[in-house]
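Slide 14.
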Amino acid sequence: MRYLSKERRKFIRTDRRIVQTVRHYGPLSRAELARRLDLSKPTVSVTVESLLQQGMLHEVGRGQLKCCPKFGPPQERDRGV
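Slide 15: predicted structure.
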């Protein structure tokens, strides 16, 4: 079994927290995510950049982040939003 470093586990948890928060509250800015999750702005920016590259989030409007449809709430996935 392969073990993940403590830093990598923390990064994965941060990814998950950010995606869950955006799914729950809808489009949010990086600054708002940092406030809601009590994370530093640089941590949020680095994590969000990774999530954007993976296609798990996308930007809408003026710096607002939104989950991609396949990761969004069920009603959005069903409508194809």
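Speaker note: The first strand starts at residue 57 and ends at 60.
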